[in-house]
Design goal:
globular, single chain, alpha+beta, Glutaredoxin
Length: about 90
């Protein structure tokens, strides 16, 4: 395999966690608390996107919120397991 095609391992500080949710969602509130804690611990960045403000995200995820992406790829939905997220960010 070409060295250019190999995925390079990212350090936790280079990882980005995205929480996709909506206002008034108690599962989103729970997910946010887990993500904030794990990202603070690992040094990963995190962001939040609101499906009520983005039609494409709404179409893709409205039945699954909260949805968590790590580096743009779906990691989980509904419930966020801190240990699993921590392992993913350190992988």
């Amino acid at each position: 395999m070409s060295p250019l095609l190999r995925r390079t391992k990212k350090k936790a500080g280079e990882r980005v966690v995205t929480l996709i949710g909506k206002p008034g969602c108690h599962l989103c509130d729970d997910a946010r608390a887990v993500i904030e804690g794990v990202c603070a611990e690992t040094g990963a960045a995190w962001e939040e996107k609101d499906i009520t403000q983005d039609e494409e995200l709404h179409r893709a995820y409205w039945e699954q919120i909260p949805v968590v992406l790590v580096d743009g790829e779906q990691h989980t939905f509904w419930r966020v397991d801190a240990g699993r997220l921590r392992r993913e960010l350190r992988a």
